[in-house]
């Protein structure tokens, strides 16, 4: 009896010295789940923001996660959606000829970025962590999102239009988001500032898997450094070139989490270190990025568009006024 009491007391003493553990049910939307092996060169820091703590991107049981930070190549370089060489896109030349001779150029399946996502688990996750990722099958519907709200070449209605992508995910464990997912308020991505992400401390651009309609046949969904969702050529070559990265996402089987340790809390978001089998003893950055002032590009374009109309009208009015004034003076002259 005494031995049993001593064992119980020892167990209580040991447990009181251990860090407090939590259950997956305590994770809420917006929290940060830490797992995977951080890699300074590529920018992967092992921090995943929880977009949905109860459902996958297809509505099943599990969690939908999105990398908090942007990730580049193994050497830290930018990533293209698909490498199509030295092909540039402008309003006058949108790449129609290239698209005609290279069908499927905006398809996510078989793209460079899809192959990069496919290799991601082996590079950055342990075997147990990779086994916790849920293979995902999904088709994307067509979607129209607000653009600059003014008619522009290739966007006569002032919107940004994307084609459907049937069977775009076929058992993928890591993938990039669609335009619909990247603009979903329920995921905490409803505003531009919600989509701002950083590559090694600097705001950067990231790819989406949705193909633009044929008005821009080489363009796919794209998130700019200030968080606006638009479209951009698959090889990141346009009138102005952008440095582009990936922001990987995954569906997680939360029942595979064997231990959950609270690392800190900031602005209502809790950072958790997750273990999947063997204890995760890796160190993760607990300082969350602070999003500053975000440019409202759509509003700026609308202002410029309005000024482009108003200023010529004012100049014309001034010219008419001066002509009328000159004629009147001439008539009054003796």
How is this structure best described in words?
The protein is of the alpha+beta class and 334 residues long. It has 2 domains: 254 residues, no CATH class; 36 residues. It contains 6 helices and 15 strands. Strand 10 and strand 11 form a beta hairpin. It starts with a helix and ends with a helix. The N terminus is likely disordered.
Distance between the termini: 129 Å
Q: Give the DSSP E fraction (strand runs of 2 or more residues).
A: 15-25%
Average per-residue pLDDT, rounded, comes to 85
Compute the number of helices.
6
Topology of helices and strands:
Blueprint: H1 2-17, E1 32-34, E2 47-52, E3 63-67, H2 96-101, H3 112-124, H4 127-131, E4 136-140, E5 143-146, E6 159-162, E7 165-172, H5 179-182, E8 197-199, E9 202-211, E10 219-223, E11 229-233, E12 244-245, E13 249-252, E14 259-266, E15 269-275, H6 297-332
Parallel strand pairs: 1-15, 9-12
Antiparallel strand pairs: 1-2, 2-3, 3-13, 4-7, 5-6, 8-9, 9-10, 10-11, 14-15
What does this entry show, briefly?
The protein has 334 residues and is α+β, with helices and mostly antiparallel strands.
């Amino acid at each position: 009896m005494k031995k049993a009491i001593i064992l119980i007391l020892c167990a209580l003493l040991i447990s009181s010295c251990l860090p407090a553990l939590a259950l997956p049910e305590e994770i809420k939307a917006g929290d940060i789940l830490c797992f995977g092996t951080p890699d300074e060169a590529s920018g992967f820091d092992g921090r995943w923001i929880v977009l949905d703590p109860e459902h996958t991107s297809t509505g099943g049981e599990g969690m939908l996660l999105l990398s908090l930070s942007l990730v580049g190549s193994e050497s830290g370089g930018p990533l293209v959606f698909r490498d199509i060489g030295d092909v540039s896109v402008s309003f006058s030349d949108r790449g129609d000829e290239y698209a005609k001779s290279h069908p499927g150029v905006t398809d996510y399946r078989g793209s460079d970025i899809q192959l990069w996502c496919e290799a991601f688990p082996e590079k950055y996750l342990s075997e147990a962590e990779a086994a916790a990722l849920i293979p995902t099958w999904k088709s994307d519907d067509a979607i129209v999102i607000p653009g600059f709200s003014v008619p522009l070449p290739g966007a006569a209605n002032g919107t940004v239009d994307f084609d459907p992508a049937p069977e775009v995910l076929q058992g993928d464990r890591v993938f990039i988001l669609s335009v619909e997912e990247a603009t979903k308020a329920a995921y905490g991505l409803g505003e531009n500032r919600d989509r701002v992400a950083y590559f090694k401390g600097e705001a950067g651009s990231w790819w989406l898997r949705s193909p633009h309609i044929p008005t821009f046949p080489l363009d796919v969904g794209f998130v700019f450094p200030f968080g606006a969702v638009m479209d951009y050529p698959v090889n990141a070559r346009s009138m102005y070139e952008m440095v582009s990265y990936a922001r990987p996402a995954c569906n997680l089987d939360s029942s595979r989490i064997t231990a959950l340790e609270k690392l800190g809390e900031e602005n209502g978001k809790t950072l958790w270190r997750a273990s999947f089998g063997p204890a995760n003893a890796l160190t993760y950055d607990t300082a969350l990025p602070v999003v500053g002032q975000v440019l409202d590009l759509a509003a700026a374009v609308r202002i410029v568009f309005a000024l482009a109309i108003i200023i010529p009208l004012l100049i014309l009015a001034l010219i008419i006024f001066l002509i009328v004034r000159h004629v009147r003076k001439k008539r009054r002259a003796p």
